[in-house]
């Protein structure tokens, strides 16, 4: 009887968290759009997220892929979500995080349904917001409109043959005198948040296409290794997304120096996923077929449209306000020690490394 009473109490707390999160999102949406139409529904090329009350949207083929690659068993899916939810409520009762099925599934899938690793990823996800307030404070699309208008990033409308959406980055469009580098990070993070919503992306992952045309010494040396380490830490260990490949094209000689700064922070598996193509489009097409690429990269999918993704993000403004413009979710939470976001105390040793690498940048340049 005591076990049943305790379980009922946990489930009651869980319902409070879920209902509060759902009602706040619904009330925010109702102020701006008809309840039956979500902002993303205006952009038919991008899949919509699962409904508020979770119902699997995966095709049988994707369910089979998730079973094989992620150890996801459809018959155990909601049981696994409940197990993770129970761990959060027991070990981090003061963590004000979403507890709905769709949200927690992102973390389970990203860590192949290992409960402990999924919980650590969730904690890292929230810890990143506290460790980097200049990125996460007031994070919403309207605050990075200048980045989107400049054409720094977009998402191509057609996924590759493996169902992976392609995040296209153009670092050469950014000039350090225009705005701080962290604005680029903010735009990337908002993009990843939108990309991870559909279950297709959670299973298939994404591909990055980075065009380094126009990148010079000012862009290469501006972020520095401390900032680079934070970006890499978030992408590798603080966000529930699977980056399956990073294709670099039109990289200048200076890229050797840029990669020398980034590589020490990359896990071996991630470092192996970087592919440098130079100006050889045939090499690029062996990794990303011409049928999904715009004409600018030798593809047959029309001209590169930088506006479609920008419009989609801006139309989801209120969604991000609810998600990010709220009180600190870690207020009162006790987090385990982690070197993932170790703060400024690491800056000294990292900057020493940067001094030794700066000469490489100038040599390559």
From TrEMBL:
One example GO MF annotation: phosphatidylinositol bisphosphate binding
SMART domains associated with the record: CRAL_TRIO_N (SM01100), SEC14 (SM00516)
One protein family per Pfam: CRAL_TRIO
Chain ranges passing through the membrane: none
Protein name as it appears in the record: CRAL-TRIO domain-containing protein
Cellular component terms (Gene Ontology): membrane
Domain CRAL-TRIO: 140-305
InterPro entries, A to Z: CRAL-TRIO_dom, CRAL-TRIO_dom_sf, CRAL/TRIO_N_dom, CRAL/TRIO_N_dom_sf
Annotated region (Disordered), positions in chain: 23-44
Top-level lineage group: Eukaryota
Gene3D superfamilies, per the entry: Alpha-tocopherol transfer, CRAL-TRIO lipid binding domain, N-terminal domain of phosphatidylinositol transfer protein sec14p
């Amino acid at each position: 009887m005591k076990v049943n009473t305790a379980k009922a109490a946990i489930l009651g707390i869980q319902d409070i968290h879920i209902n509060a999160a759902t009602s706040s999102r619904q009330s925010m949406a109702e102020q701006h759009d008809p309840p039956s139409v979500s902002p993303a529904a205006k952009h038919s090329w991008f899949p919509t997220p699962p409904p508020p009350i979770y119902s699997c949207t995966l095709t049988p083929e994707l369910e089979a892929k998730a079973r094989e690659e992620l150890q996801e068993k459809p018959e155990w899916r909601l049981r696994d979500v409940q197990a993770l939810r129970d761990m959060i409520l027991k070990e981090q009762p003061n963590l004000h995080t979403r507890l709905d099925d769709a949200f927690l599934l992102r973390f389970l899938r990203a860590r192949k349904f290992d409960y402990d690793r999924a919980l650590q990823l969730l904690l890292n996800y929230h810890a990143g917001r506290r460790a980097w307030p200049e990125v996460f404070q007031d994070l919403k699309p309207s605050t990075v409109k200048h980045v989107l208008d400049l054409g720094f990033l977009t998402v191509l409308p057609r996924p590759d043959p493996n169902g992976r959406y392609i995040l296209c980055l153009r670092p050469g469009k950014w000039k350090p005198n225009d705005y701080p580098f962290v604005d680029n990070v903010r735009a990337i993070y908002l993009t990843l948040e939108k990309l991870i919503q559909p279950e297709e992306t959670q299973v298939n992952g994404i591909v990055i296409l980075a065009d380094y045309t126009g990148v010079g010494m000012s862009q290469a040396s501006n972020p520095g290794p401390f900032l680079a380490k934070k970006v890499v830490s978030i992408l590798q260990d603080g966000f529930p997304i699977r980056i399956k490949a990073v294709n670099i094209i039109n990289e200048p000689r200076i890229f050797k120096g840029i990669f020398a700064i980034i590589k020490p922070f990359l896990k071996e598996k991630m470092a192996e996923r970087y592919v440098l193509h130079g100006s050889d489009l045939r090499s690029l097409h062996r990794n990303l077929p011409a049928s999904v690429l715009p004409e600018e990269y030798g593809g047959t999918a029309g001209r590169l449209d930088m506006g479609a993704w920008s419009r989609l993000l801006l139309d989801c403004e209120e969604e991000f306000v609810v998600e990010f413009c709220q009180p600190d979710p870690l207020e009162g939470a006790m987090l385990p020690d982690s070197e993932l976001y170790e703060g400024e105390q690491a800056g000294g040793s990292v900057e020493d490394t940067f001094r030794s690498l700066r000469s490489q940048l100038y040599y390559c340049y």
